[in-house]
Amino acid sequence: MVGGGGPYLRETVRTAVKILIVGHFAVGKTTYVGTLSEIRPLRTEERMTQAGASVDDLAGVRDKTTTTVAMDFGRLTLSDDLVLYLFGAPGQQRFTRLWNDLARGALGALILVDTARLQESFAVMDIVEKQGLPYAVAVNRFDGSPEFPDAEVREALDLAPSTPLVTCDARDRTSSTHALIALVDHLLTDGQEAP
């Protein structure tokens, strides 16, 4: 049975797994965590102001009025004894110091990318790789974003052949679940191949 429903954990839960949801600024991390969370997600969004205009590049971003300033948090119960905790990290460079704390104890990361702004994904991927976290990449489909064959996206991001690459719509629960499954499958396979 997927989804625990209520705000409290079942007494049968024995394993909790921490997963990071990361990506560049305005790629849909807050939406993704909110879509999958069975509880009301914790959000630390603040209204963007003119003071941040010189720091937060809004080029290619439509109707963005808020930004995450600490993290997003959600929970997803996978079975009677297993729960996933989803931690969404802010995407701006000035918040990367938070990532050390958020990454502590994480089993892996799902990196959201936008094909219209792939170049912004490199800094995020670098941080995840420096943390030593296994990861999967999910292309978040935005209306009007260009579509490319997976092979081209994989090459543009310089992904290892074993790194999962999937597409999703962060607003859609089924689509977002498939992206998360790709990461979990990768973590299970990666763990079995370790010496």
Automatic annotation (TrEMBL):
Keyword set includes Lipid biosynthesis: no
InterPro entries: Gliding_Motility_GTPase, Gpn, P-loop_NTPase
Example GO molecular function: GTP binding
Domain of life the protein comes from: Bacteria
Key word GTP-binding present: yes
SUPFAM superfamilies linked: P-loop containing nucleoside triphosphate hydrolases (SSF52540)
Family that this chain belongs to: Belongs to the GPN-loop GTPase family.
This protein's name: ATP/GTP-binding protein
